[in-house]
Amino acid sequence: MTESIASIADHTLLKPEATAADVAAAIAEAAELGAFSVCLSPSVLPVEVPEGLATAVVVGFPSGRHHAEVKAAEARLAVSQGADELDMVIDVGAAIDGRFDAVEADVRAVREAAPGVVLKVIIESAALDDAQIVAACEAAEAAGADFVKTSTGFHPAGGATEHAVALMRRTVGDRLGVKASGGIRTREAAEAMIRAGASRLGLSATRAIVEGDAAQGGY
Q: Of 25, 103, 118, 216, which sits with the fewest C-beta atoms within 10 Å of its C-beta?
């Protein structure tokens, strides 16, 4: 399963202190490992990546508490600067309040601003109960998302769990992808997420995971 882990990995560098050299190193490592994409902060664009490596960029990250218009503008700019995929954060507070019409409108604004790219919607699953996870996934699907995604990796409530991934997969079926991210630091954990239904993984410790070693810290 090691090859499949690399091939569905978004090799991620989202540390606020990341330098231009760190970004270049992350791109090179993603290409070397055969990752699906490199996932970066929008301010580092434009970047050059080897052929076959997609560029994913976060939107409204990490809090999600940005106006939908701001997220849409950020998405539009990222695409104009070379982003192939967007990982946007919902307004988690709106989901907790049960305002899923607002969640759907938020996602739809980004979808309409960037119609030609893969859109992954981060629902911050560790901060939601099961009913809220289901409703957030349904709102994302209704708004035109391509993936639902567990976590930013920055929320104090935690990251991906097998339970959340399985629930998200049951909710979206085979219509959308499911991305597990946040706190995946070992090969065993990555494989467990795949078994639970993840079709993409957000990893900062991709090399250690592919090689089967435990990683300390990371996205």
A: 216
